[in-house]
Design a protein that fits this description.
41% helix, 2 helices, 4-stranded antiparallel β-sheet, alpha+beta, 4 strands, 100 residues
């Protein structure tokens, strides 16, 4: 099992709006791609940065699933996020392998 982890730091003033949009629009759109088997949404609590920091973890079974997502869906969905929130919600992505 693998995890496509997206960490997002939002300005405090938009964190509630961003969180609602993620729950009702963005995450369902990502899952509708059919590339991931499940997801997990977390908020980081011990970060000294200003604003709010969240992680969305999308679980997938094989590397081809992530490649299909990146090739066919990621650009459009990331553009929607940027269009809606601009630089008020900045994301970076990592890929992890579940060991246990």
């Amino acid at each position: 099992m693998f995890i496509y982890n997206v960490t997002i730091n939002t300005e405090q003033s938009i964190s509630e709006e961003w969180l609602e949009w993620m729950k009702t629009k963005h995450i369902p759109d990502v899952l509708a791609s059919g590339c991931f088997v499940s997801h997990q949404l977390c908020q980081l609590l011990n970060i000294a940065d200003e604003g709010a920091t969240f992680c969305v973890q999308y679980f997938y079974s094989k590397q081809e699933d992530l490649e299909r997502y990146q090739n066919n869906f990621a650009k459009k969905l990331q553009a929607e996020h940027i269009q809606k929130f601009g630089n008020r919600a900045l994301a970076f992505r990592t890929i992890m392998k579940v060991l246990e």
